[in-house]
Specification:
4-alpha-hydroxytetrahydrobiopterin dehydratase activity, alpha+beta, 4 strands, binds the ligand C[C@H](O)[C@H](O)[C@H]1CNC2=NC(N)=NC(=O)C2=N1, Pterin_deHydtase, Putative pterin-4-alpha-carbinolamine dehydratase, Gyrase A, domain 2, 3 helices, single chain
Length: 100
């Protein structure tokens, strides 16, 4: 199931397929710091991700300061990481290319 909590081995495999994402100390989230050229690119990225997240019915915890966006992904209902978090991470990495 897509909303089923992943075990440590699955998390480590999925994480190794990504770049720039790290596991938080408590093991329940992955996070990444994105840096863009300017605020417009950062906000364009967030807009695209917001629409993708809504379609996926899976939403990021994030914050933006000028040209930086900090993203933390976790599945609240599973109290940990699920396949959905990794799907959203892949979508976000793809959105970076479109923002440029
Ligand atoms: C009803 C709806 O499917 C749920 O509330 C979804 C919405 N988005 C979500 N996003 C995240 N990150 N975790 C959730 O558990 C979650 N649940």
């Amino acid at each position: 199931m897509i909303r089923q909590k992943l075990d440590a081995a699955a998390i480590s495999t999925r994480l190794s397929e990504l770049q720039g994402w790290t596991l938080t100390d408590d093991g329940t989230s992955i996070e990444k710091h994105f840096v863009f050229r300017n605020f417009s690119e950062a906000f364009g990225f967030m807009t695209q991700c917001a629409l993708a997240a809504e379609k996926l019915d899976h939403h990021p915890e994030w914050s933006n300061v000028y040209r930086k966006v900090h993203v933390k992904l976790t599945t609240h209902s599973a109290d940990g990481l699920t396949e959905l978090d990794f799907q959203l991470a892949v979508l976000m990495d793809r959105a970076v290319r479109d923002a440029a």
